[in-house]
Structure formats: structure tokens, C-alpha cells
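Module 6 notes. Inverse folding takes a fixed backbone as the condition and produces residue identities as the prediction. Think of it as a translation problem where the source language is geometry and the target language is the twenty amino acids. Below is one complete input and output pair. Work through it position by position during the lab.
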């Protein structure tokens, strides 16, 4: 459920008509709904009420805007971060260091040191050497780093190959069959409190079966580790729950997921940790855009909008579907292609799609753009970096400016030998 609805024929974000935002801020612009973020955060939490002790760490890579982080901090969420930059954001967004989990396959020594400085809550180790280095860094500073070992359960998540992370050939985690021996060796290091295991098998999962299979393997691993004498107090089950992108998509609900988790983890007696990203942020945002031209095509007309692949990369990168609707639909329909202005054929949002009839200067939105949208934006083709707006009831604020190419040019230098 989200709070982007039509009132008197005009699409609103909560109580704000989207044309008001377009007039005030211009287009393209991301528009987020505070009420939707809060609702998703609460629904996900309630879904896990039957799963015992739970720590919720919002995967901030889905949408790391500081205002969004503030909302989720107010909802009691910690953060899952994958870089020192994200750690800085989580802290600046009001999330306590102890509630931050640091994931990622390429944490540098500098990043590990900064995270030790900050006193974050948990390191999710991706390889044995990382654990050795972290242990040495922590020990030298008189610290003990809380850590879990991320395992790769070799499960096919059944999602797009580019967002699948739990197959044995993927770069993430350590092979689950090697985990017990590695755990033995790493747990001997002073400087490390190796207290559990983690998994994350992929994103936009539309079926709970691969997750349940992965959790079952983790359950066996936990039993094996305990039998070997290890204390296992934390298991991080990752993120990955999908969201509906198409009007007729049917996905497992957070409640279905919660019931599965309760079933799969019965008797584990650990603190369960979760790293939801998309399921919190996806439907909490839209990308508001204006039609530049409707260009006649050989097969279908091209609706050329002022948003492009550099603002919303998912269609070009993952062949992702984003629903497109007019802000003031007339009721009439047309079959069209939707594309942006960037000089790439990949800058196409839809081909042969049945959409509301739109004409030049009409407003439209790409729905379900709150996750992996603005955060992946670039300035390719020297376009301005897309701004972000947060709505709360009948008020709204620009929470990220439109960064102009001039700002980037000001950071570029022409060497002196070229200026003579
Ligand atoms: C990306 C990521 C997540 C969040 O995934 P979603 O599909 O957005 O829920 C969680 N954990 C890790 C380690 C990730 O890399």
C-alpha cells in the first residue's frame, strides 16, 4: 500500500497534488511519501513479531537520503551499510552506531578502521582474510569487533541474474561447506567476537521457497557450529523481499514472510537480524516527469519524457518494469514507447506499453521508484542530478537539491599545459 492516489482526477502524494511540486521544484524529481515509509517500516516490524528477538537494519543503499534515514530512525530502524560513505549517512541520519551493520565484499582497511572508530554494532565478514585483518586492527586498538560470517548457501533466488547473490559462483559470502572450519580459525583471534552467521541471497525475490531453503541450511550450520563448541547469538537473515512493480504483480506479503521466518527459525534461540531495503522504500517513491514531445514512430509513438536512464537506471540495467501513469489522466489510452532524452537506445523505459494518453507538457510518474532510484542516478550526458522531495501530509520539502552541471564543472581542472 502507498499514499500516491488520485483526488479529483489529479495524482497526489499524500495531501499534495503532484503539479504543485512540479511547479515549485521542476521536473524530473523524485517524490517520497513519509506516511508510506512509516507504514512499510511498521508492517515489516509487525510481520516479525512472532519471530522472537529481532534487530531491523534498513539497507540504506536502497534509498540513503538523509531525510528518509531520519524517518526510519524515528521508526526504530538501524542500518545496513556497505561503505564508509553509507556509514556516515546512517550516523548523520540519526541512527546509533550500535545499530549499524557493515556488509560488503570490498570493505577496505581504511573503512574497517573508520567503522571501529565509530563503534558500529556488527561487521558482516565476507572472507577469512577480512576477519583476520579486522581482528588485528581491533586488537591493536584494544577493541573487540562484533562480527558474523556471511555464508553463501548456494541457492538460486530465482531473481534477475544481476541481483542474485546467493549462488556459489557469486562473489558474496564464503561457501557454506567451508564455513565451520573458517569459523573455528577466526574465532581464535583476539580482537574478534565472532558471534554468528549472515546470509543475503538476492533482491526482488518473488518466491519465499529459495529463502526458506537458505534459512534451513543456515539452521543446520548454526547447529553444527554449536556442536563444535561455538556460541551463536546472532543470525542475520539479510533482505531481499520483492515488491509489486506491475499492477497485477502478486508477491509474498511481509506477513507471509514473517510466518515463514517464524517457522524456519523455530528453536534457534538467537537475535535475528534483518536488512530490508526495497520492501521499505520501493513503493514509497515516484519519479515525477514531464512529457517533452510525443514523437511519431514507425510502429508506436515515442513519448519522450524529461527523466532519463541517468535518473532511473533500473530499466536500462535490469530490464525493470516501472508503471507509468499520467498525473491528470483523461481516461483515454494509447500504445506507446516511453523514452528519455539520453543518447543511448537503452534510455528506454517501456516499449509498446498501454498507457494514459499524454501530450507535450503533461506530467506523468514512474511508480515504485523509491528504492534503487535516486541513489543510482548519475549526471551522464551532463544532465543535472535529479532532486528529491519528501512529502508529509500537506507539506513538502526539497530533501536533495538539483545539482547542476556547473557544480561538477567547478570540480574539474584543465591542466596548465592545456591553457597556455
Ligand atoms: C542490497 C542488500 C540488502 C537489501 O536488499 P533488498 O532487496 O533491497 O531488501 C540487504 N543486505 C545486503 C547485504 C545487501 O547487499
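Target side of the pair, the amino acids:
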Amino acid at each position: 500500500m502507498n499514499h500516491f492516489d488520485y483526488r479529483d482526477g489529479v495524482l497526489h502524494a499524500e495531501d499534495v497534488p503532484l503539479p504543485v511540486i512540479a511547479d515549485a521544484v521542476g521536473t524530473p524529481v523524485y517524490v517520497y511519501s513519509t506516511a508510506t515509509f512509516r507504514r512499510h517500516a511498521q508492517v515489516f516490524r509487525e510481520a516479525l513479531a512472532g519471530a522472537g528477538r529481532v534487530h531491523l537494519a534498513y539497507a540504506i543503499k536502497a534509498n540513503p537520503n538523509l531525510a528518509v534515514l531520519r524517518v526510519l530512525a524515528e521508526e526504530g530502524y538501524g542500518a545496513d551499510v556497505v561503505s564508509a560513505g553509507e556509514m556516515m549517512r546512517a550516523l548523520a541520519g540519526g541512527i546509533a552506531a550500535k545499530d549499524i551493520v557493515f556488509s560488503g565484499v570490498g570493505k577496505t582497511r581504511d573503512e574497517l578502521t573508520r567503522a571501529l572508530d565509530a563503534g558500529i554494532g556488527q561487521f558482516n565478514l565476507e572472507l577469512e582474510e577480512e576477519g583476520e585483518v579486522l581482528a588485528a586492527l581491533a586488537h591493536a586498538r584494544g577493541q573487540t569487533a562484533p562480527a558474523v560470517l556471511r555464508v553463501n548457501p548456494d541457492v538460486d533466488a530465482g531473481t534477475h541474474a544481476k541481483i542474485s547473490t546467493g549462488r556459489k559462483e557469486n562473489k558474496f559470502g564464503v561457501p557454506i561447506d567451508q564455513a565451520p572450519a573458517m569459523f573455528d580459525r577466526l574465532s581464535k583471534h583476539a580482537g574478534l567476537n565472532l558471534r554468528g552467521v549472515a546470509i543475503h541471497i538476492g533482491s526482488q525475490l518473488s518466491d519465499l521457497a529459495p529463502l526458506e531453503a537458505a534459512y534451513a541450511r543456515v539452521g543446520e550450520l548454526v547447529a553444527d557450529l554449536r556442536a563444535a563448541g561455538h556460541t551463536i547469538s546472532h543470525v542475520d537473515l539479510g533482505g531481499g523481499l520483492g515488491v509489486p512493480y506491475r499492477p497485477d504483480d502478486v508477491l509474498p506479503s511481509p506477513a507471509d514472510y514473517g510466518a515463514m521466518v517464524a517457522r524456519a527459525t523455530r528453536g534457534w534461540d538467537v537475535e535475528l537480524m534483518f536488512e530490508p531495503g526495497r520492501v521499505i522504500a520501493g513503493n514509497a517513491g515516484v519519479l515525477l516527469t514531464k512529457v517533452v514531445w510525443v514523437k511519431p514512430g514507425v510502429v508506436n509513438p515515442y513519448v519522450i519524457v524529461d527523466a532519463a536512464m541517468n535518473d532511473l537506471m533500473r530499466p536500462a540495467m535490469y530490464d525493470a518494469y516501472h508503471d507509468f501513469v499520467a498525473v491528470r489522466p483523461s481516461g483515454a489510452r494509447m500504445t506507446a514507447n516511453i523514452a528519455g532524452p539520453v543518447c543511448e537506445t537503452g534510455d528506454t523505459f517501456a516499449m509498446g506499453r498501454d498507457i494514459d494518453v499524454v501530450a507535450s507538457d503533461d506530467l506523468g510518474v514512474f511508480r515504485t521508484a523509491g528504492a534503487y532510484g535516486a541513489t543510482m542516478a548519475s549526471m551522464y550526458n551532463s544532465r543535472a542530478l535529479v532532486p528529491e522531495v519528501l512529502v508529509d501530509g500537506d507539506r513538502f520539502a526539497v530533501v536533495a537539491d538539483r545539482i547542476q552541471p556547473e557544480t561538477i564543472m567547478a570540480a574539474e581542472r584543465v591542466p596548465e599545459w592545456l591553457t597556455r
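Reference fact for the lab report: The chain has a mean pLDDT of 96.
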